[in-house]
Amino acid sequence: MQPLYTTMKFLKFILILFSGFLLTSCVTSKDVRYFQPSESLVINEEGLVPYNIPEYRITQNDILTLNIVTTPKGDAAQFYSSLNTSSSANNPNITGVSTAGVGSSSGNASIYFNGLKVERDGDINIFGIGYIKAEGRTIKEVSEEIQQKVNENFLDGKSQVRLSLGGITYTIIGDTETVGITGEKIAHKNTLTLTEALADNGGLNRTVDKTNIEIHRKLPEGIKIARIDLTRQDAMNSPYYWVQNGDEIYLSTRPKNLNGFGKDPIQTITTGVGVITTALSIYLILSRL
C-alpha cells in the first residue's frame, strides 16, 4: 500500500502544479483583443478620434524621388545627365529623374543608384542646381526650394517639381503569423497605420504581446524608442500609431508562451498532459530501482 500511496501523493502534487500552470498561462480575451475601451481615449467634439499624424522630416541616408514636369518645349535636361533624361522619351511633357522611393534589397535597385541620397552632412546634390539642405526639413519645404531654383531657369508656371520618398519603408522583426514575413517592407501610400502594416503582413498570432509593441523611429536627431499598447483604444491617439518612413517595429513574445503554454487551451492541455505523463513515467522507473 505504501508504494501506491506514495504514487498517488506524487500524482496529486503534479496535478496541483499543472493547475497552477494552467491558471497562469492561459490567454484571455484581454490579451488578444485590439482596441479595448479606454477612458483616456481622446476624441473631439464630434465624437471622432482626431488624426495625430506626425509630419515626416528627412533624415540621413534617405533617398528621394525627383521629377520635374515641364511644357513640351521646356528644356529641363540642362539639370540632368542623358542617362537620367532618357526615360522621358515616351512622354515629351515630362523631363527629369524617374526613380522611386527609398533604396532597399526588397525594392527597385534603380532607386539606390539613381535617387537623390541625403548625405551625412544632410545635403542632396542636384546636378545643375547644386547642394540643397534636406535633413530635418519636410518634403514640402525641400520641394519648394527646388521649385524656386528651377523657376530661375524657367518661366513661372512652365514647370512643376515633384519630390517624394516614393512610399513608406518600414521593418518588422518578431513573431508574425505568416512564416518568413518579417523583414523590410514598402507601402506605396502617403499614410500607414500600425494595424494596417501588421495586417498587410499576416497579422499577429496569440503569442505576441500586443501590449508591448516597440517602435524605433528614425529622427534627424537620432533614434527614438517608444512602446504602444494595441489592446487599448487610446493607442490611436499616439503619433507612433502612424508608421513613418524608416520605422522598425519589434514584436515580442509573452514570457508565458515561451514554455509552450498559453497559445490556446488545447495546446495548453496537450502540453500539460505531456508533462504529467513524462514526470509520472520517470517517477515509476525510479521507484522500481
Automatic annotation (TrEMBL):
One of its GO terms (molecular function) is polysaccharide transmembrane transporter activity. Residues 54-155 form the Polysaccharide export protein N-terminal domain. The chain crosses the membrane at residues 266-286. Keywords: Membrane, Signal, Transmembrane, Transmembrane helix. InterPro entries: Poly_export, Poly_export_N. The keyword Kinase does not apply. This is Protein involved in gliding motility EpsA. It comes from Halpernia humi.
